[in-house]
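Standup notes, protein team

Yesterday: finished cleaning the Solanum verrucosum set.
Today: Probable purine permease structure.
Blockers: none.

Input for Probable purine permease:
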Amino acid sequence: MDEGAHEKLLHLTFEEAERTESSENAKNSSFESSKFILWLQIFIFTFFTVGGQAAGTLLGRVYYEQGGKSRWIATLAQTAGFPILLPFIFYSSAKNHSEQPVNSASIFVRASVYIFLGIFQVANSMLFTIGVQYLPVSTYSLISGSQLAFTALTSFLLNRQKITAIILNSIVLLSFSSSAVIFQNETGDSGEISLLIGFTATTFGSLGYALQFSLTELAFQKVFKSGTLKEVMKMSFFICLFVTLTSLTGLFASGNWNDLEKEIGEYRTGKLSYVINLVCTAISWQLYAIGSVGLVYKASALFSNVIINLGSSVVPIFAMLFLKDEMSGLKVFSLLLGLWGYASYIYQHYLDDLQAKTSEVKSSDDQADNL
C-alpha cells in the first residue's frame, strides 16, 4: 500500500471514529434527556398523588366531624371530580388527531376493562369511606399502608415485579410502619367495636386497591399499548364515571337521598361550607386518581403504592396541624419507619438507573470496538 492510500485510509478511519463518537454523544444526550423527562413526569404524578391524598383524607374527616353522615355522599365525592379531565382529553385528541393509534383494542374490550376496574373502585372506595368514618385520620392513614405489602405480592404474581433485597427491606419497613399502630390503645370517641369495623374495612380496602393497581398495570401492558398520557386520563375518567354512576344509584336506592336536605341543614359550618367541602374533596381525589394511575403507567403498581404509602405517612402530620389529631410516640415511630422504607425503595431505583446507564455506555463502547 503506497503512502497516499495509507493516509486516505487513516483519514476515513478518523472520520468514521468522529461520526461514531458524535452518534454516541447524541445517544447519551437523548438517554439523559428521556430520563429527565421521565423523572419530571414521575415527580408531577407524585405531587398529585400525595397532595390529593392528604387533602382528600382530611376533608373527608372534616365532613364527618361537622355533621355529615352519608357514606354514599362521601364515596361519591371521591370520584365525582372526573369532569375536570374533559378539557385535557379533548385537547390531547385535537392535538394528535392525525396520528394513528398504536393499540387496536376494541371499544368493547376497553369498556370491559373500565367496568371491571370500576367495580374494584366502588368496593374499595366504600371500604375506605367506612375506615375514615370510624378511625382517626392518622390511624386510618397508617393502617392503609398495608396496601404496599399486598401490592408487592400481587405485582410479583401478575406483573413479574422484580423483588430485590432492598425492595423487600422497603416493603417490610413500610408494612411494620402501618401495622405498628394496631398495638396502640386509641379509642377516641368510638368504642372498640367501631374501631374494629374501621380497621377491618381499611385493611380489606387496602387489599382490594393492591389488586386493582396490579390489574391496572396489566391492562396497560396487555390492552392499552399506546402508552400515552391521554390514555392515563381516559382510564381515570371512565373508571371514575362508572364509580360515580354506581354511587349515585346506591345513594337513591338506599334512600339516603331523602335525608340529604336535612344533612345539609344540620351541617355545623353551614350549607356553603358543606358544598365547598364536597367540591374540594372531589377535586382532591381526582388529582390523586390521575397521579396514582400515572405512576402505574410511568413506573409500576408497586412504585405507585410506595408513593401512596408516603402520602399515608405525611397525612398524620397535616392531621395534627389542622385537625388537632393526636400524634403519639408510636405514630412518630411508624412515620419514621415509613420514611425509611420509602428512602430504601427510591435507592433501589437509583441503582437501577445507574445500572441502565452503565449498560448503555458499555454497549456503546462495544460497538465502537467492533468498527
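Follow-up from PR in the comments: The longest helix spans residues 3-65.
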